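Notebook, student rotation project (T.W.).
Task set for the rotation: take a protein with a known small-molecule partner, predict the structure of the complex, and write up what can be learned from the model alone. Partner molecule chosen: flavin-adenine dinucleotide. Sequence and SMILES entered below by T.W., checked by me.
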Amino acid sequence: MNAQDRMDCDVIVIGAGLAGLTAANRAAELGLSVMLLERQSEARHVCASRTNGGVFHVGFRSVHAAPETLYEAVRSANEGFGPEPVARALADEALRGIDWLKGQGTEFTRLEPDHGWKDEVLAPVGFHDKTEMAWQGLGADRLIARLEKRLVEQGGRSMRGVRARSLVEEDGRIVGVRAEVDGQPRTFHADAVVLADGGFEGNADMVRQYITAYPEHLLLRGCESGLGDGIRMAEAVGARLLGMSSFYGHILSADSLHREGLSPFPFLEFLASAGMLVDRQGDRFVDETMGGHYTSNALARQGDGLGVVLFDHAMWEGIGRHFFCPPNPNLVNAGGTLHRADSIEDVARLAGLPPARVRQQMEQLNQETRLKEAAAGSEEAERRRAMTAYAKGKHPHEPFEQAPFYAAPVCAALTSTLGGVEIDAAGRVIDVRGVPIAGLYAAGSCTGGVEGGPAVGYIGGLIKALVFGLAAAEHIARENLIARENQHIARENLIARENR
Ligand SMILES: Cc1cc2nc3c(=O)[nH]c(=O)nc-3n(C[C@H](O)[C@H](O)[C@H](O)COP(=O)(O)OP(=O)(O)OC[C@H]3O[C@@H](n4cnc5c(N)ncnc54)[C@H](O)[C@@H]3O)c2cc1C
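Predicted structure of the complex:
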């Protein structure tokens, strides 16, 4: 039997998150036959696309900003990391993606219009003002349900309880997927395969390999639906991986590793940026003012992945009361450890840190902070008073001046991984030689090079899933059309030859 006779459909999409459902729906819309394989069996399956805040933005900029502004936002957040045409595609296509979602009946609303980047938020909202992961009935949940329904209405096949395990390759082209269905192996064939199975936060071996030698000290703050299968499958057929070590994360109390009520909030990165974050030897290892994503990555990578945030009373009463569910008083109320003493040495001792080393670090930091403040004059003080927006999670250092002093043991918390397989602007998977792998596409959190990298640039997982889900489907449809035209021409030529 030749490959064409075995085809179950034109395109197989792996994973029913936003990336997969976008690719599947767009492909069906363009006239392709589609099969969507989802590992989980539950109708309302839990995945990142269903359990998020629903804010569509591009590097904390409104999707309505000019493409050039969005492009600059991506390149500067990533500090140049990742393929340039991919950043360009994201910037150029973001708004069209939102319009496409609206065309599917998705409802959006605005939040905090003053900040200007939360103007396309899935409705109804309500995710970010809860101290637990409450997502049922909110915008993201509704979006996933709507897209699944649309797919079936358009004649797409949606299969549950099917875990894709490896890719079928023939003559250098991907022509199918080997999967487990109820524990039994089964192979599906198609002209193209789209990987859209999320990140690898749920795979402890991969987290250990790429992110931290101590996964037991890294709290999983999101859901664990991404198992890294797509990345592994693509790697096995020669795909290049990009930015595997960076993740979207925050800093939480170390007690969250074994105690309820301290995740997903309160964040301790704001106190760390005003005060200081040290390792278990009492040494600073990162510029704490770089914000929560950056510092949580640095924390996970150093030593055993644990650290201590130190601050003074003014910080506890100031920035400590900042943001939704702030550490003051929620950290203590939820039973998180907070040491307190009248001197920095005593609080260091209580936290198991070398007192002399901590004092030295604090004095050095105080000196640097005062110098910076003197150089900046009243502007710096004003900036501090204004409390930097959550958008960047950044806040300048403040001098340690006012007893008592505090120490909170902390860990890094991973919301979602940011690395994965390299793609081009059309969502085609790129191999280690820099060449697209025929028939293989990827979108969403299984892709790398769109965000993350050494600067831990956060561009927005939703817009990434949406734009490259669309791009992959549209490229497959174009290829399909060309192949059909070629077949048609070949058939005509054959008939003409026979009639001669
Ligand atoms: C708490 C939280 C809040 C967030 N808030 C925002 C926000 O406000 N704005 C924003 O831009 N981003 C946000 N994000 C990130 C965003 O939600 C994700 O980046 C995005 O939803 C990823 O979509 P995806 O389709 O790639 O992956 P997922 O949504 O993870 O979907 C992958 C699907 O693939 C399935 N799957 C896995 N392995 C297999 C397999 N082998 N075979 C078949 N199926 C498989 C999974 O079960 C899952 O259903 C947030 C994330 C979290 C966790």
